[in-house]
Design goal:
heterodimer; A: alpha/beta; TIM Barrel; 8-stranded mixed sheet; B: two-stranded parallel ribbon; 1 helix
Chain lengths: 307, 69
């Protein structure tokens, strides 16, 4: 519990005298229209748009964060509060009109669960799902609160080694792994992203952990960009991404993706039984979805997802 | 100091088939256009801080940036 005027480690919630909490949870720095593939989600309503919101703040302080001007509010002087109030009903209305979802992305959505719950309340009536791109640093209680409101989550898993993960992010990795299991148990669709961070991300070890949870979790491999406090390293090479894909498949993961560096083959969904392409994608777009009721049209194998 | 504004989309000037040729990520590409509103400078780079340094030295009021995710 936060004491009077005490600021949380999240830097966006503060205790108030007499008890209670001060926060600006119904706010966003952006209202963007993005493809769901950009979050990225490849097995959740492909080819649909999202209305994307993001309020300043994050529970992690990752050294490589490209979004630091918005995510590191309260830790970095360059990150200023630039959010404006948003009306959950209005946002859901926009998503419904666009035939898409509401996404909370760019920063850490779990810092504002009230907004997610309110968006989901409006979304149930309008047939609009709410999705998160999250660092997954949530307690079991927080997952239990938010999961019923969430159609899908993409969780960042930067590494599975406790020491290097804590050094990079400021947080422990086990809650992230536990959150993957917990969201799946609650019935939320889960995809995972891994930026290949030098010295942190071992594709073999991460893939083994993910495959131990579910081989059907889509795994997105993301190129490391030298940025923020990690400028001395080089960007991830296409060869390293290809090796990481191979590691994912060797571990048993059925769907491993690279958005750009390996071309169209890297972002296609392949039937794990007959090996044919069932979903073709462009960069952040859907080109063709051959699935029939979530099954391969050639051999009938079911492909996990929310199609 | 320029103010940063976060926008939905910017055109790519660097394409994936160029990644392997620049393993250290030193490539920066700039496109300068004359528009009805003035001069528009679009940049793309593997290292964001290099591009931001170039753009900020041109003294703009505002720099537009795409966010990750």
């Amino acid at each position: 519990m936060l004491g009077s005027r005490q600021l949380g480690v999240c830097k966006v919630r503060r205790g108030v005298p007499g008890g209670g909490l001060e926060t600006a949870t119904f706010a966003s720095s952006v209202v963007h229209v993005d493809a769901v593939e950009r979050k990225p989600f490849f097995h959740y309503l492909p080819g649909t748009p999202t209305i994307t919101l993001a309020a300043p703040g994050c529970s992690f302080r990752c050294d490589y964060c490209v979004n630091f001007r918005i995510s590191q509010y309260g830790r970095d002087d360059e990150s200023v509060w630039n959010a404006r109030p948003v009306d959950a009903g209005e946002i859901v209305g926009k998503a419904a009109a666009a035939g898409g979802s509401v996404a909370l992305s760019y920063t850490e959505p779990s810092l504002a669960p009230e907004l997610t719950l309110e968006l989901a309340r409006h979304g149930r009536d309008a047939g609009v799902g709410v999705v998160w791109k999250t660092n997954g640093f949530l307690t079991a209680r927080a997952v239990a609160l938010c999961a019923p409101a969430l159609a899908a989550v993409n969780i960042d898993v930067k590494g599975v080694d406790e020491e290097s993960h804590r050094k990079l992010t400021g947080g422990s990795v086990q809650p992230v792994i536990d959150a993957i299991r917990a969201f799946l148990e609650h019935g939320t669709w889960v995809e995972v992203s891994t930026p290949l961070i030098p010295g942190v991300s071992s594709p073999e070890r991460i893939a083994a952990v993910l495959a131990g949870i579910s081989r059907d979790i889509p795994w997105h491999l993301v190129r490391f960009t030298p940025a923020y406090r990690m400028r001395d390293q080089d960007p991830t090479s296409p060869d390293a991404l290809a090796r990481a894909v191979a590691a994912g498949r060797a571990a048993g993961l059925r769907h491993v993706y690279v958005e750009r560096a390996l071309g169209e083959a890297g972002r296609a969904t392949w039937c794990p039984s007959c090996g044919r392409v069932v979903v073709r994608r462009g960069v952040w777009s859907l080109l063709e979805n051959r699935l029939e009721a979530g099954r391969c049209p050639d051999c009938g194998t079911g492909i996990e997802g929310r199609w | 100091m320029a103010k940063y504004r976060f926008i939905e989309d910017l055109p790519d000037l660097i394409h994936p088939d160029e990644y392997a040729a620049h393993p250290a990520g030193r490539l920066v590409r700039i496109r300068i256009s004359a528009t009805e509103d003035g001069v528009e400078i679009l940049g793309d780079a593997f290292r964001p801080e290099v591009l931001e340094e170039i753009l900020s030295r041109l003294g703009p009021d505002e720099i537009e940036q795409m966010l990750c995710g």
